[in-house]
Amino acid sequence: MAYYTELWRQLVPLYGENEAKAIAKLVFEVAFNLSFTDILCNKDTQLSKEQQHKLQKITEQLLLGEPVQYVLQQAWFAGSWFKVHSGVLIPRPETEDLCYWIAEQPTLSSLSNPKILDIGTGSGCIAITLSLLIKNAQTTAWDIAPEALSLAKENAKAMNVSIEVVEQDALNAPCDNEKWDIIVSNPPYITPQEQSEMEANVLQFEPNCALFVPEDNPLIFYKAITHYAQKALVQGGTLFFEINPLFVSEMKSLLAESGFTDIEVLIDRFGKERHVKGVKK
């Protein structure tokens, strides 16, 4: 039996057939540099003994429910491969929508060197992607986790992107004044009561500190970052968030009550109200 077929069939009980095939395809592409065309030509039957051993180890990890991105230490995001590991959140496709939305803002055309701050950068996927998409962007990335800071620097270096990576707690931001043209954040936003609706491997393997907020204060990070942005953004600067769709109304109210205008909500590729922006006037 071809190794690709053997792998996806083993994964079906965990993921269903379609996702199992997608995972197997990704494994052969990333770990063995075999395209799907190569698989159709049965090149997956020609693995060396060393490659077979490697595939066995990958299979064992996947059968334990470990996300394929952590197993391969790679995640595809906005046209680039990002290194990831279990200390940081896996970049999600809906976050790509946020990056593209920011890069398409018409106000950017009037800025020669847009100053951008990404708060809670994780792997660096937002900060690095914006630096790739926006000409002459001067991008800074904050995080409090040492493993995230190290990984963001590693990813930026691998992609030949210049960003400043800073250890900074979003809940204790400095007193900056009119420093940034854009502030963006995808902070923790899932409440504990939502755990029952989440996939088991997300709960088991991804860092809880990057996912969850207190049940009694779900907007804790949004309030702190919005308060910081009130002074830290230039006049006409824009604050962008990825948000929990359950709290869209609360987020719009928070921005409005904090003096932001031109508030907009973006529906992501999955039909969820996932992103919001407000302009400092």
How many strand segments?
9
* Number of helices, where a helix is a run of at least 4 consecutive DSSP H or I residues: 11
Q: Please state the average pLDDT score.
A: 95
Just name the CATH architecture of the largest domain: 3-Layer(aba) Sandwich
Structural category is: alpha/beta
Helix content: 40-55%
Coarse morphology: globular
Assign the CATH superfamily of the largest domain.
Answer: Vaccinia Virus protein VP39
Rg estimate, integer Å: 20 Å
Q: Taking strands numbered 1, 2, ... along the chain, how are they ordered across the largest sheet?
A: 5-4-3-6-7-9-8
Straight-line distance between termini: 64 Å
Approximately what portion of the residues adopt beta-strand conformation?
Answer: 15-25%
- Total separate domains: 2
H-E string: HHHHHEEHEHEHEEHHEHEE
- Regarding CATH, which class of the largest domain? Alpha Beta
Identify low-pLDDT runs: none
**Largest β sheet strand count, sense and barrel closure:** 7 strands, mixed
Tell me about this structure.
The chain is of the alpha/beta class and 281 residues long. It folds into two domains: 3-64; 86-280, Vaccinia Virus protein VP39 (Rossmann fold, 3-Layer(aba) Sandwich), CATH 3.40.50. Helix content is 41%, strand content 20%. It contains eleven helices and nine strands. The protein has helices at residues 3-15, 17-32, 36-40, 49-63, 68-72, 93-103, 125-133, 146-158, 200-205, 220-232, 248-257, and strands at 74-77, 80-83, 115-119, 138-143, 163-167, 180-185, 233-242, 260-267, 273-280. Strands 5-4-3-6-7-9-8 form a seven-stranded mixed beta sheet, sandwiched between helices. Strands 1-2 form a two-stranded antiparallel sheet. Helix 1 crosses helix 2 and helix 6 (93-103) packs parallel to helix 7 (125-133). The longest helix is centred in the first third of the chain and has 16 residues, at 17-32. The radius of gyration is 20 Å and the shape is globular. The N and C termini lie far apart (64 Å).
